[in-house]
Amino acid sequence: MRIQKEQIEDHNRKTAKSHSDGLSNLHRHMDQKKISFEAVVQRLSDFQVAIPSWSLGAGGTRFGRFPMGGEPGSLEQKIEDVGLLHSLNRSSGAISLHIPWDIPENTDAIKALAREHDIVFDAVNSNTFQDQPGQKHSYKFGSLSHTDADVREQAIAHNLEVIHHGEALGSKAITIWLADGSNFPGQQNFRQALRRTFESLESIYSQMPADWKMLVEYKPFEPNFYSMVVPDWGTSFLLATKLGDRAKSLVDLGHHLPNTNIEQIAAILMNEGKLGGFHFNDSKYGDDDLTTGSINPYQLFLIFNELLDEPDGPSGPWSQISWMIDASHNIKDPLEDLLQSVEGIKTALAQALLVDRAALQDARGANDAVMAQQILEDAFRTDVRSLLRESRIQKGAAADPLGLYRALEMRKALIRERGRDSVATGL
Ligand code: PSV
Ligand code: MN
């Protein structure tokens, strides 16, 4: 399924008048704040968020799954779906693969297809949270932390295989999320489990290509509910620090206990050069996998505000961050949801770019909490939709990606092409 350039141009012509009205208001507002309109548009146009391969089909819960129809049944079709998103918004030019759900059979053909769609391969993800058919040892009681050295060896070998697939595709990072932990007090020796995990990670790290980074993800609970071996950013930071420069922490927004100050975590990690990347999503309770920015857009804005809080060079900490979505829904059309998520992320970025940094610095210097809050809220409450539209139009994307997706009845077309029963691999 492809969207033609002419379809996008035609769609953009129809929205041109209302777009230019909104834009001139915002332009004036930015001029007053001495923020360069062109620089912000450029920054938004350049920003790319990787799409997780496991988000392209309907997600399930442990109670059931309601397939969407027209789901991508192969890696090729997953790349086509990301290509579709990218042609609509020009901000989704990367895919993050999960092995073994996405083992490429013909690497050259997959790379050529990705090139055709202008898609690159972001971090590859290992999976030691499920047993695969024919697998020798079970991960029921852990993987890299397992008490049995043979299980640990198997999990290490799997991670190396993931790196190997990623290398062939041009990826430059592996994300390791461990489901390892325990469900009952006394079940696991915390110190020994952590030491074994570190040693396993060290073995993978030492065999990783020199230009690769390792992203260590953390999660406070689920699937284990008493303890997780890597439960929080502190443990991830500890492991990444002991491993070396190329190991970093990965912040999944859904992996925090309620009310955690995630923006402060991002700031601390960035300060230490250890912020490796994000898994964007939103949540009300835990790892809910909801559309990014749908529940707590202010938090998302505050995260970007922290990331932009200090001047950063072209190869500074910002450039080291992998931007990825991690969500998997059970009721929405996943492509529509992903368009909304990318929009939510770019909205927060745009708002954070509108913060009057000099005024904020002054307010902080004067301990003027009222004014500091005003400055942030002024940026957060700015309607940046025309700015986002402009950043897309300049890149040849659709002014309104979701509107065009619906107008072209893309889901119906995908169902016609792939059938009602086509199911994507994943959770
Ligand atoms: C685990 O909850 C997680 O956030 C990890 O990133 C996994 O790789 C992903 O979700 C898919 O299960
Ligand atoms: Mn994640």
Helix content: 40-55%
Number of helical segments?
A: 16
The SS-based structural class is alpha/beta
Strand content bin: 5-15%
Q: Taking Cα atoms only, what radius of gyration do you get, to the nearest Å?
A: 22 Å
Mean pLDDT: 96
Tally of DSSP β-strands: 13
Ligand roster = alpha-D-psicofuranose, manganese (II) ion
What can you see in these coordinates?
The structure is a single chain. The chain is α/β, with parallel strands linked by helices and 427 residues long. The protein has helices at residues 5-14, 16-32, 37-46, 75-89, 107-116, 149-169, 190-206, 233-243, 262-271, 297-307, 334-353, 357-365, 369-380, 385-393, 401-407, 410-418, and strands at 50-52, 60-61, 64-65, 94-96, 120-121, 124-125, 173-176, 181-182, 213-217, 227-228, 247-252, 275-280, 322-325. The strands form 4 sheets. The chain has a 6-stranded parallel beta sheet with strand order 6-7-9-11-12-13. Strands 1-4-5 form a 3-stranded parallel beta sheet, with helices on one face. Strand 12, helix 10 (297-307) and strand 13 (322-325) form a beta-alpha-beta unit. It starts with a helix and ends in a 9-residue tail after the last helix. The structure holds alpha-D-psicofuranose and manganese (II) ion. The site of alpha-D-psicofuranose has 10 residues, from loops. Alpha-D-psicofuranose (PSV) binds at residues 54, 125, 177, 217, 219, 252, 279, 287, 326, 427.
